[in-house]
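U., I forgot to send this yesterday:
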Amino acid sequence: ASSDPMRSNVILSRLSKARWMLRIFALLALGTSSGAQATDLGIAREFFSPEDSATIEQVQGTPPAAIVRAADGRILGYSFSTYEVSGSVGYAGRPLDIVAAVTPDGIIAGARIVAHEEPILVIGIPRDALAAYVAGFKGFDIRAGAGLKRANDLARGPHAVAGATITSTVIRDAIVRSARAIWRSRDAATA
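Result:
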């Protein structure tokens, strides 16, 4: 039986491409992996006005969060990691971590994705689209029952990232569920 040289070349070409794709995937996954290090909640300073000179205290309580204070001692909010609060994982079942902050009034002060290993995002969804989606939660009121509403607006939240609808839903759930858990635990403690 003779082998077809053309077919062999096609198979080798496909194997070579597959190996390169695996290498790229591995490098990108390593670059976005958060490892076992604790999340830096200091990012939350940028969610508040520079005039407040926000400081981030040590993480404490259950669920874990850090108090964000103004220079005059006022509590501006609570900074947290969605992974540390709710164990958020992405569509691929891998860790997904967003640093966010919620005010004492139950308004999301800001959010930024700090780690993900979502293959769909690695192979074609722009990082800027994901970052804009996450940042779009700033100003949302988490006090309402099941709905997510922008403070002083009736919007139901930022639109999902095109091509990453399931990942967008997972991100939304991680931010809202974690923010509500933090807000309810801290609000109950001060009531």
